[in-house]
Amino acid sequence: MKKLSLLVSLLLFGACSNKEEAAKTDGTVVTTIGMIADVSRQIAGDHQEIINLIGEGIDPHMHQPSKSEIDKIQRAGLVLYNGLFLEGKMGTILKNRADQGNPVSAVAEGIEIQVMGSSVPDPHLWMDVSIWSKVAKKIGDELAAFDSKNADEYQKRRKEYQIKLNDLHTYALMVFPTIPQKQRVLVTAHDAFSYLGRAYGIEVRGIQGISTESEAGTKDINDLVTYLVDNKIPAIFVESSVSEKSVKTVIEGAAEKGHTVKIGGELFSDAMGPAGTYQGTYIGMMDHNITTIVNALGGSAPEGGFQNKLND
Ligand SMILES: [Zn+2]
Predict the structure, then answer these.
(1) CB within 5 A of ion ligand 1: which residues?
(2) How far is the CA of 151 from the centre of ligand 1 (A)?
């Protein structure tokens, strides 16, 4: 009896939600990655609840959306995602939602920038603060269109936020050139930093990807070790969401050739730091990355970063 009534209520609930699903949303703004969520919160203030799906330490490229995440996308009034194939496994759901006429926007697409990447577009636009500022403009426009009665306030807050982004970009342009010319090489576990390299004048090399294919990987790692030794590169970097194994192999290889390479610190590549911390904001995450890279490679950036908040 109990089973039957549960079944009946499930059926009733199912029928009801199906009927109303198309018309009803809960009015929330849903974002896929922390960097988009943070910019949205800075602009929307108290006017919107921003629900982010892919959190701290999670790799968006491989993330498989859960049932609850799919529900949140289906109920959302507005969905803001990166695009350029960053959210690989969520792509179909987002596209279907857009095809049904719902407001779903790929904020990294359709802005006037030169997209990097040879065979596939490189989605990591946030690594160049001046580009992410253009994305912030697009996020502001989307929020203003979604909630037009607060549009003026959104645009005002967006402009104020872009001033802070411009300050951060200027800081990066100032501190990167303090790294000695020959040491301006950023070696990281995964290939997420190309936009940073292009914007701030540092060569970028990723280890992951090449190291997974055993034979070619060994040769590539050996080439990288030789390069580090020849150029006396002092440090390479780990990432919060990627294994340190390949990084350690490179460090050991350099040591065998008599050159000490240290781990220059942990960088935030595709996810921000813990919620509620400075590094858990877009500005804090990038301030941390910039300051850590510059100091580990022999340049000089203030320990506390561009607004002295890194040691809080
Ligand atoms: Zn990535």
Answers:
(1) 192, 270
(2) 32
